[in-house]
């Protein structure tokens, strides 16, 4: 009973205070509702009743922000396409520089530099291989997963590229400097050789000046023109003719010619102690053709061979002899192909190498011919000897001995250099087979002609 009364009293009390609050809220212009249901106090005891205690909901707490799933990190965070390409070009430039250093270390060979440059080149190749595996496949925008690679930024790659270019330029400069040093050394050596040649030329010029200088009571020409001078020039000419005849015989032999048959066609009546002596026939053919016209002032080149003024011809011949001896005959022909010397060479070539005799392999008188240079050298020596001969007073005379004439030790010399009269095992006066080199008369002195003796005599 008391419990019911207490509950009713509490309800009325709540309603009373609710009415007062409504009046206060009307004065303030706002109304707020109060819960109609109030749970029993802790002291209240209600029996045989189901008590429902209503508790206000707790203030909602702020929900934590959703944590995004961890992003999948690229094993190479800075490895995008631009950086990869920049690093690739920088590595290529490094390899190029290292390879250039390898080449430079080979000339001259520097073992330490070669090993260092080789190791650097191999290292850059390995890095290029790693970059190749890190490069994205076609159609893919991401870089494939691979082991982490140390990539540089774009600016760092450009710096490395420029540094490698500087190393490359430095290697090129070192190589060029080495070439310059080598050429400087060669130039210095050539200058030393040139200085030596100039000294030799000066000494020779001084000797020539002393030889040409007039002595008291004598003229300039008489000081130079002697039998020994002419004989010396003649011997030089004979040596050159020997070389040319040997070259001619070798060339004919290589082209299938029978030299013995050739010798028989030149001197049909000649006999030989040995079959190999037929080479003297070829030498005789060359010498006699070259000396043909030697007794003429124009050497058979000029159409008008009138008697020259001896005084003028002597001085002019000596001057031309000195000038011709100081120049290269090949350059002389190139400078003036229509000069008297060039005409002399061409005419004598056609006489020695007779056209139309099956000797077409020898060629005509032109630089492409295999005998051009040796023939010009031989013709130059004969031309100089002719100029010297006409500088004497009287002019040097030429002679030769015919087939079958008896050998004379005064005018002849056996070209085999054997004792005359021992060829047949008994003392005899041998006969001349043919003249190989003609003889000369220098004033009252005879320069012997060289002959091949007939062994059958």
3D architecture notes:
This protein has 457 residues and is mainly α. The chain has 3 domains: 1-54, no CATH class; 83-138 and 147-186, no CATH class; 220-454, no CATH class. The chain has 12 helices and 6 strands. The chain has helices spanning 2-28, 81-106, 111-134, 154-212, 220-224, 227-254, 259-266, 278-290, 310-325, 329-335, 340-352, 372-389; strands spanning 397-399, 412-414, 431-437, 439-442, 445-447, 449-454. The strands form 2 sheets. The chain has a 3-stranded antiparallel beta sheet, with helices on one face. Strands 2-6-3 form a 3-stranded mixed beta sheet. A hairpin with a 2-residue loop joins β4 and β5. Mean pLDDT is 76; it is low at 30-47, 51-55 and 59-79.
Write the layout of secondary structure elements.
Elements: H1 2-28, H2 81-106, H3 111-134, H4 154-212, H5 220-224, H6 227-254, H7 259-266, H8 278-290, H9 310-325, H10 329-335, H11 340-352, H12 372-389, E1 397-399, E2 412-414, E3 431-437, E4 439-442, E5 445-447, E6 449-454
Parallel strand pairs: 2-6
Antiparallel strand pairs: 1-4, 3-6, 4-5
Helix pairs in contact: 2-3, 2-4, 6-8, 6-12, 7-8, 9-12, 11-12
């Amino acid at each position: 009973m008391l419990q019911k009364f207490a509950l009713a009293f509490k309800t009325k009390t709540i309603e009373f205070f609710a009415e007062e609050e409504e009046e206060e809220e009307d004065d303030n212009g706002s109304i707020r509702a109060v819960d109609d249901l109030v749970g029993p106090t802790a002291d209240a005891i209600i029996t045989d009743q189901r008590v429902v205690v209503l508790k206000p909901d707790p203030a909602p707490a702020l929900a934590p922000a959703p944590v995004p799933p961890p992003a999948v990190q690229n094993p190479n965070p800075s490895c995008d396409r631009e950086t990869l390409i920049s690093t690739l070009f920088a590595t290529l430039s490094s390899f190029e520089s290292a390879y250039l250093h390898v080449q430079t270390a080979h000339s001259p060979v520097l073992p330490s530099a070669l090993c260092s440059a080789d190791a650097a080149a191999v290292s850059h190749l390995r890095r290029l291989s790693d970059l190749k595996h890190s490069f994205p496949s076609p159609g893919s925008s991401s870089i494939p997963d691979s082991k982490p690679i140390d990539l540089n930024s774009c600016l760092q790659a450009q710096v490395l590229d420029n540094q490698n270019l500087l190393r490359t330029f430095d290697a090129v400069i070192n190589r060029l400097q080495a070439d310059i040093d080598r050429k400087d050394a060669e130039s210095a050596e050539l200058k030393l050789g040139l200085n030596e040649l100039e000294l030799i030329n000066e000494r020779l010029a001084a000797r020539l000046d002393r030889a040409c200088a007039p002595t008291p009571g004598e003229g300039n020409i008489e000081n130079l023109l002697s039998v020994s001078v002419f004989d010396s020039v003649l011997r030089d000419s004979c040596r050159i003719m020997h070389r040319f005849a040997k070259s001619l015989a070798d060339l004919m032999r290589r082209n299938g010619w029978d030299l013995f048959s050739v010798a028989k066609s030149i001197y049909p009546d000649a006999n030989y102690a040995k079959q190999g002596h037929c080479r003297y026939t070829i030498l005789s053919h060359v010498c006699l053709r070259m000396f043909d016209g030697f007794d003429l002032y124009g050497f058979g080149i000029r159409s008008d061979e009138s008697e020259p003024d001896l005084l003028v011809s002597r001085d002019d011949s000596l001057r031309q002899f000195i000038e011709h001896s100081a120049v290269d005959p090949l350059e002389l022909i190139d400078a003036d192909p229509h000069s008297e010397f060039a005409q002399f060479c061409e005419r004598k070539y056609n006489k020695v190498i007779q056209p139309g005799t099956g000797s077409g392999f020898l060629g005509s008188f032109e630089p492409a011919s295999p005998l051009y240079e040796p023939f010009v050298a031989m013709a130059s020596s004969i031309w100089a000897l002719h100029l010297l001969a006409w500088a004497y007073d009287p002019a040097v005379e030429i002679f030769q001995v015919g087939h079958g004439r008896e050998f004379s030790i005064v005018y002849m010399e056996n070209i085999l250099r054997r004792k005359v009269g021992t060829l047949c095992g008994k003392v005899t006066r041998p006969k001349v087979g043919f003249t190989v080199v003609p003889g000369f008369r220098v004033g009252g002195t005879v320069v012997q002609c060289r002959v091949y003796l007939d062994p059958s005599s």
